[in-house]
Amino acid sequence: MVVESFLDGTSGGERALADDVLDGLTRPFKELPPKHFYDAHGAVLFDRICEQPEYYPTRTERAILQADADAIVAETGATELVELGSGTAAKTRVLLDAMERAGTLRRYVPFDVTESMVRDVAAALLDEYADLSVHGIVGDFERHLDRVPAPTPGDRRVVAFLGGTIGNFTPGSRRRFLRRIAAMLAPGDHLLLGTDLVKDPAVIEAAYDDAAGVTAAFNRNVLRVLNRELDADFDLDAFEHVAFYDREHEWIEMRLRSVRQQTVAVRALGLEVEFAPREELRTEISAKFTRERLIADLAASGLELAEQYTDPDGLFALTLARR
Ligand code: AVJ
């Protein structure tokens, strides 16, 4: 087992957060990138979101994988699985099991920002699968994709990017990112991409504003991250959770709305930020897809749609694309 880390305290997380906050809070329309939701507490809140009755993506994607993993392995002949944002690899085991049944399982490459997750998953999977080799990468997939090891000759690679996280990218950066994934693939290799699908806006909005208030707490948690990491003084009770579906762009936005006029200090940056009454700070976009839009994004990135798997209600899709 190999685990390589490309993050270190100063070149990685902290400086990236400070730069993002300085950019995002001095813009005319305030914005923070969603990746800063996921400190330890945010990761726990996200896991709880996935269990809420209104939040359909996680359980739907899992059901599609369970139904179609054997077909995915048959279609791709996968010997190697590279997983971007591997986390606890809960859904991964469904794919690895199918590869094992097909007799093709050779190597798993988990890629995640959280070092402990990569190490724990690597150790657990080595125990669970005989003859599996694991090469873990600790990094930020927006910066370190080129550190993924070259495929060993004869391997059929599948790069999995699950959960619908591709939806967090704006359209231009989404295509840039897909192009960088395409560069990791040899002809005949595949991308397995999880995407949420366009549907009744009421269903989407409920998924991002659950009755138990878990998503609202997750949204506000980014302010707690800023308070701790950048010595800011956000009052979490002075911001309301907002989630609305933008039909033109086909994405959901989460925002935090200031309930009053207020000035917030971000002391580590020497920054004072003014919020007007009801002014909103955008914290996430999560794009929803149609088959046509996926085909266009893939084509613009040098990829071709090979197969698409969805649930009976057409809520979510797993798309296989090849170079
Ligand atoms: C992890 C980006 C797929 O957009 O649905 C869940 C994050 N935000 N609820 C999503 C999220 C609010 C999630 N992704």
From TrEMBL:
The keyword Cytoplasm does not apply. Residues 18-322 form the Histidine-specific methyltransferase SAM-dependent domain. GO terms for molecular function: methyltransferase activity. Pfam families: Methyltransf_33. One of its GO terms (biological process) is methylation. Signal peptide: none annotated. Keywords: Methyltransferase, Transferase. It comes from the Bacteria. This is L-histidine N(Alpha)-methyltransferase.
